[in-house]
Design brief:
Layout lengths: L1 E4 L4 H10 L6 E4 L16 H16 L3 E10 L20 H12 L8 E11 L5 E12 L15 E3 L11 H7 L1 H16 L1
Parallel strand pairs: 1-2, 1-3
Antiparallel strand pairs: 3-4, 4-5, 5-6
Length: 196
């Protein structure tokens, strides 16, 4: 089975390929379809954004498409950065600037007030219009300084619940077993096995 990933984020593609390895699924990307349009993530929820991206890519490619929208929700910040996680620091946002802004916003909060979670919604859209969604969550807390160089995004400041290492310090296998995307992809894998 071929599935097109509705992303150009190389680290996300690597992670999804790694987690779906051995399933018999051939992962293609938008780069395999020149002219495949970008979809603006302007929804109010992770699910809206994931579905919008998957449907657009399925229509363009004529193949089943997979999109995810994920981000960090921090309790003390009322759920921010949420769906704006990748764009949190404004125009020209990148991982370093986003993490810097988050740590600046969190500087007044002490241990016990720094809870949050990573959230992932994966949408699977078929060219015939069928849509399925799968969710994953990783509860934890925000650290005071970045630690570790693995992963991407907010991984170096996120301590999954019950662990003394950030996602940025963990091996790929360790993070995959705990991560929001890993949990959502496990649900997706079960679904695909049931239909393949």
């Amino acid at each position: 089975m071929e599935i097109v990933l509705a992303t150009r984020n190389r680290k996300k593609v690597e992670e999804i390929r790694r987690i779906t390895e051995g399933t018999g699924i051939k992962i293609l990307t938008m780069d395999d379809f020149p002219g495949c349009p970008e979809t603006e993530e302007d929804g109010d929820t992770f699910e809206e954004n994931a579905v919008k991206k998957a449907v657009a890519v399925a229509k363009y490619t004529g193949k089943t498409a997979l999109a995810d929208d994920s981000g960090l929700e921090v309790d003390a910040l009322g759920g921010e950065p949420g769906t704006r996680s990748a764009r949190y620091s404004g125009e020209g946002a990148d991982d370093k600037r986003n993490v810097g802004k988050l740590l600046n916003e969190m500087r007044a909060f002490h241990e016990g007030e720094r809870g949050g979670r990573f959230v992932c919604c994966i949408a699977l859209a078929s060219p015939d219009g069928t849509i399925r969604t799968f969710f994953g969550h990783a509860e934890g807390a925000i650290g005071n300084v970045p630690k570790g160089f693995r992963g991407f995004g907010y991984d170096p400041v996120f301590y999954p619940r019950g662990f003394l290492q950030t996602f940025g310090e963990m091996s790929n296998e360790g993070k995959d077993a705990l991560s929001h995307r890993g949990k959502a992809l496990e649900k997706l894998k079960k679904h695909l096995k049931s239909i393949c």
